[in-house]
Write a structure and sequence with these properties.
Length: 100
Amino acid sequence: MNTPAHRPIATARLFADSLSPGEISASLGVRPEAAARKGEVLVQRPGRPPVVARTGTWFITTEGRCTGNRPEQHLAWLCRLLVPAIDTIRRRTPDVRVDL
């Protein structure tokens, strides 16, 4: 029996009531998988009601962006993306939090 190769992914979510997704994208230089200001539609799936952001949210994944086969390579990719910009992001959005 052949099992498919494991392809790890890692995700990061930045969130805050005052978060502006456009500012996060500009600071990081990448587009997110999903983003919305508090109260805006975050996700709209066909045939389902829209998911409204309870807080400002900016979400990215390594899927299709990082070619490594080890989880630590995916986490390192996110850290290389976030660490250089986090101080700037915190100055603009002091209540920002980050989940990995």
